[in-house]
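In the present case, backbone shapes were mapped to integers, as reproduced here:
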Amino acid sequence: MRALIWRAPSAPWAGLRWSDVRAAYEAWALVLLGLGVALPVFLAPGWVSAPRLGDLALAAALPLVVLQWGRMGPASRAAGPAAALVLLVTVLIQAGRIGQALNVSDLAFWFRWLAAALVAPAAGAMMAAEAGRRRLFFAAVLAGSLFHLATYGLLALFGRDALQAVGLASPRAAFTSVAAHVRITTVAEHPNAAMAMIGLAVPAAVALIGGRWARRPLELGAAGVAAVGFLCTLSRGGLIAAAAAGLARAVVGRRWNAPASPLGVLLAVCLLSGGLIALQVTRVDVDLSRFAARFDLEQMDDNLQGRVATWTRTIDFVVDQPLGVGWSTADELGAFRALTVSHNGYLFMARTLGLGAALAALGLHLWSAARLDALTPLAVYLLAMMFSEDLAQGAGFVFLICLVAATAWRRPVAP
């Protein structure tokens, strides 16, 4: 008789527990943050100043601050609110001194920094405490780097207009020519910024794979991604930063007595040999002189002299305005409009956020790199890139700057 009694089917969410929902959201937020770092897709295709995937990731990850509050240590709990308060006071002082209301560009710039300062300690605490969460984030960064590199192939296949229609290319630039060398960019708008994001494949890969037997071939694959990125962008800074991250991983391995992997070395040799054979069979024509010219000593010396002049002008401006001037356009800077490009992320921070914020970030990044653990290659990569390019403006690298700074006081994390 009881079998004949009809029972209403249970709701699909009836068996869900809060802990499961919370874990799913935290994982989703980390994936979105990782993708946003390396793949700044336009959320409104065709609009030059459209919000990017990184902006969406920061907004969506803000609840992490509340969810992780009880799990964070005292330093992590204090870091986010303290940094956000300093930034908020800075923007109020700057707005009051200038005597003008903030425009949309100002609001977007400061939102990125305020949101990143709040989210980074929570995300960093998760990654430092749980290897699975850390690898999930780096897997997303690696996927973003690979897809960023793939946009160059898509550009050749479908053209810039098709990519713009779906937010994978900027209306601002796709092909640029510098000293008769063609340099390509899509979503990052500048080849140096594009290479910075593609090169993240190296620190992401070495953090993702840990000490497993497949480490060597995966490291070689990530190095190949960086090399192909250089072929597209001709950006030396990202290539050097990727090499520095790989060297840092070798030092970390020595620090933690990582075991050798003969099978991994064998697979790496096979992968490299296979790639060379494929180039020979397919008769790919590579103009090596085009790339070798980027390392010509005379050109590099001229480039360095130009950058030193830019750094000197920026330093003079920072000495005159130590509290920063916020997100200023070339017109607003007047005679100092050349300072919209600093070719140094820390100098750019000093010009926009103030000298104190720049020095604090530099000190924390150095401290983070000195930990010699699983997160050291990322810190080394960020340091190298920050010293070569203005990266303290896009949402992805703003978050990365805050993340490396927020994890500086972590306990050493085994690779």
Q: What stands out?
A: Residues 73 and 125 are 8 Å apart (CA to CA).
